Amino acid sequence: MVENDEFGGRLKVLGWFCVLVIAVLIGRAGYLQIYQGEYYSELAEGNRIRIIPSMAPRGTFYDCNGELLVQNRPGFTVSLLPLTAPISDDVIQRLSELIKVPVEDIKKKIAMHSGFDPIRIKADVTPDIVTIIEEQKENYPGVVIEVLPIRDYMNKQEAAHTYGYVSEINDMELEKMKDDGYKTGDIIGKFGLEKVYDKELRGVNGGQQVEVDVSGRPVEILGKKDPIPGDDLYLTIDKNLQAAAEKAVDDQLKAINAHAAAAVALNPQTGEILAIVSRPAFDPNLFAHGISTKDWNALNNNPYHPMDNKAISGEYPPGSTFKIVTGTAALTEGVVSPEELINDTGRHWIIPKGNSEGEALGLINFRQAMAHSDNVYFYEMGNRLGIDRLEKYARMFGLGKKTGIDLPYEASGLVANRRYKELNFEDGEWYLSETFDAAIGQGFNLVTPLQAAMVMGEIAADGKCYRPHVVKRIVGPDGTVVKDFQPELLANLDVDPNVIRLVQDGLHDVTKYGTAASAFRGFTIDIAGKTGTAENSHGRDHGWFVAYGPFDNPNIVVAVIVEQGGFGAQSAVPIGRKILEAAFGINQQKAAQQQNP
Amino acid sequence: MDLSLLLATVGIVLMSLVIIGSATHINTPSDDRYWFVARQGIFALVNVGFAAFLLNFDYKLLQGYGNKLYVFNLIMLLAVMFVGQSALGAQRWISIGPISIQPSEFSKIIMIISLATMLEDRVGKLNTLHDLLPVAAYVGLPFLLVMKQPDLGTSLVFMAIFFGMVFACGINLKILGGIFATGIAMMPILWHVLKDYQKMRIMVFMDPNVDPLGSGYHIIQSKIAIGSGLLFGKGLFEGTQSQLNFLPENHTDFIFAVVGEELGFIGVTFLLLLYLVVLWRGVCIARDASDMFGRLLAVGITSMLAFHVLVNVGMTLGIMPVTGIPLPLMSYGVSSLTTNILSITILMNIQLRKQKLLF
Known about the structure:
heterodimer, A: alpha+beta, Penicillin-binding protein 2a (Domain 2), 24 helices, B: 13 helices
């Protein structure tokens, strides 16, 4: 049959076609599984394995008595987790309206993000936002709520400049610090102790390696690395004294209608800082949430710069507090004897400069001059010493350079000297009147409140200068002491102990019958002090007060400045007295009664 | 009895049960963990029993029903359009009691029977376009109904059956070539006939990364599953792609990817060789059949199976576009399983009654 042969031929073709089909399929499978197998294996791993980071709790702060100052609390964070599809514009728009974050900001964060972990959009949202997102899940696909530790500054703006604040790392910081393992989205210390000790505080983030299914739901934990909490800081700060100092400053600012001030209290025998106040201040909790533009502008536009720690970065003419330096120099250099009487006729005889109120004290010796802060006497000391020796002693006291405190943005201050004038003024010649100004702490001299406290502290500690520090101990999460900060002797004044004794006596007289006597009437503990009034070309003078006590065995030095507060005796001394009262436990009952009438 | 065909079929069905079990293992609540396997297994057994019963009847009896079946087929396909239930945008299902059947599956085998009836006395007489027209119209009507559902996959199977059978009938190769040439020339026009999702499938077939989270997702995930299976596979129940649901439809249209992932190149090769046995036997049975009707039946069935294997496996391997064509005897689905076992039964029936060799 011809047609059967024909049929058989066509069947053969069909048969071989089937063989060809199977051969092609096997070949293709072999290509995918053998030749490209490694490639697809890696893709399969990437599909199913996710790293879910877990943030290490940041180290906490304690005061010198072990009282908790800064902690972490759990907070709700709104994050995006695009699993199978990118987050749609509708959802971004809706979320933007809900949490009040601009759409561009959200999109920028999405664009910046890489990896499979959630993209954090807004930290520490309120429970009602959490409720809305949880209840209307279908309106917010890909939006998740995470519970993450939020920094909690329990005492609000108290000691804010010391503690500092944390917030998300920015591009510039990331560029600088990425070699140290910092990543996009990291929360880092930006100011204060948070910044200085960031490496110790941040701990080591952990994470889980999990197998997930197609919807990103974890199916099995493959590996786990627990986060290691950061080290805790035990501070030299005394919370009670800090609170009292803050209150003293606030009350006084209100009373005299001034806006800015700073105060430092430290132990002159160790360099331990007991309290630091800077006004105006800010609430560091604002940054932990991610600060709003409104709050940020309010801080930035405040003419009194709430973000500056004036206690260490504010530079002011030292005013009469500088007479401690001038007096020490004069006695040590022997340009005057303690007994020599200088005649204050109200004006110096070479250059007609006098006391601020124009009063004339007549014939006075060193102690009287110190107690009454007599300008004419110290002009004469400047005249006899000359600017170079004044500069030498100022530098010996540590002025003109940073004290080395463990806080950021410390200023160096300035010691009046010839070279500075030469470099910075067209008329670089040094004039005697400038020496006069320098001798009483005006003119070019600039100090920070901390430096002023350090100068007083060196007198109090018989010439010893200890490095000021805020952290006493760093303690690891397991309780072991990582680092213990012992007092570090920086320098010893190269001065006869008798000279220091004479200066001490003069300062003691200040509170006995001198410029601060009325303020310290009835004070049960012997105090040495010095008032000052720093001329301010921009407005009212700044008021200064530095003091230490108890006089015989000092354990606290206080330095206070009230910006545009006028005379130190009226503006700064009351604050200093209250801080000392708190430190020595004097009048506390009365203060408590005032608080709760 | 065709032992190699029987063994290959049983082998594929057993493999199917194991792989369906694995593919649906994690994605089902534990109470129903073996629901799919059990259901598929029970229907396989019922079908085999039914097939054994059907072997008692001569397949030639079907010849008398050819035209009636054809009409029944049209009615059934029309019924789908009016009372059918939608699945994934296409009306393909009819519920009869607890069972949802997919008429288009059955319509394939019915198409083969009626076409074989029609072509029997046209063998060797398809020399002109005029000769071919009635045949084309005969297939064209149900083809259009399936196309309308829309079920592009099944309509393509109709074309495969048609071409396989008219080719065996000795169609003039010039005409065949002419049809293909015209078909290719018409492609741009056909493009407009396609639904958007069908166009997308074709585009994604050209480059899956056009839409990696949408239409291209199946292909990408399927290739990852198969590729990562390597030589020996990850082991049953160990396929991360299928067990973690990255691979959709893993017990139905994409079951071959599970084989590739869990049993590796060795498992894939073994399964494809089983299919080759089935197809090769189909061609042999066609060759040895005692009459032209039997031959055409066998050719139609073989063409259908070959096309299914090529398109389904090719799809999972990324060399064919995504169409909803199941893998015969492997994919979960009662209608498809029944149709395919019925088809194999018909092949065996033909083989049982083959022409006696004369010595």
